[in-house]
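Give me the 3D structure for ATPase.
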Amino acid sequence: MKINNDNYMPRIMDKIIQKYLKIAGAICVEGPKWCGKTWTSRQNSNSEFLVGSAANAFSNRQLAILNPEYVLKGDFPRMIDEWQEVPSLWDATREEVDKYSKNGLFILTGSSTPTHKGVLHSGAGRIVRLRMNTMTLFESGDSTGILSLKDLLLDEIKTEYVDELDFKKLAYLIVRGGWPKNIKTSFDNCEVLPRSYIDSILESKLLDENNNAYNSNYIKLILKSLARNVSTTVSERSIINDISQNEVDSISRPTLSKYLDFLSNMFLFSNLEPYSLNPRSSLRVKQQEKKYFCDPSLACALLDLTPNKIMDDLNLYGLLFEGLVIRDLKVYAQANDAKVYHYQDYLDNELDAVIEFKNGEWCAIEIKLGLNQVEQAAKQLNKAIDAITRIKNKPPINKCIIVGFGNLVYKRKEDGIIVIPINALKD
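Predicted structure for ATPase (427 residues):
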């Protein structure tokens, strides 16, 4: 039986799910807990089974362990929520897809990758993995959406006015985050839910593949260090040094690597891979990922930040704003079959974001908090584009500066750069 929610706020993932249900036997919607996976999957399914339901002493989990084929029976598409609690459901789903040889049969949801000693079948060709994240500003109703990512690809840019975000409101949006249950929370309480999210991780007994418990203190040390280094290409060595300088305890390199993998499997991060050029090029490109949380509110929670505290530190405000923009860009790009990267080379050229579309076109982006930073950003943007174009032999379809504060989408006459307030964007 399908359960409807009259208060459901449509998500960009809705149309992505509908697209892939037509071309795959099953899909797996993955992402951080509390981001809305269950309700979005529920909106697109006709029956459901909640593996992690607490009803009847968690009897659903026991049923799934004893008879995974049984829990897959129901009207299609059938949602199996938190499948990773019983990893055998993955192979059972794959076998059902093979048996029916049809598309659109199952929607699996998962908020972590299961720790499993045995080798699960990849599901290639049968189960498509889709990453879901917290709500963008457009989804939460905080962006007008007068300019879409598709407009940038088609080069259809018009001068448009938008209500300017004020200093206080943008700080609130960063600390509040895109958690569906936090969207309407007041300014004074907006940090409570993200802090509860972090607490839920630290207070849980988390086990590795050998059933050994992860050390919650190590988790806290690592997450706090990443929060202090948000929106940077901080290395593992630098994280270790940062922890030793700022905390009482220390951590070894192997332990850090193990814990980072584990936390990544919980979808806590949304890092950007480096943009690759011709490998035979003489221009050396830095290969480190740029570090972001899945939502900037988590960095705020780890650093005990409120909107008022953010407004007292403009440098930190800018780094957290960059995390918000990257969160939104990755969702908008996903809806357009595009990918988001960052770019840094050893000649000090840098781009905060590079969007590469499936037809090979690309868009270069700098992210700045205020309009007073646009001139300097334009110089950096044009310098980096010149370096890339000499190697790539293909200029970007568009070059943009995304700002936090501004009331106008416009293209600069002197260099063709598009200035975009973040609350004007959509997919």
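The longest helix spans residues 314-335. Let me know if you want a second pass.
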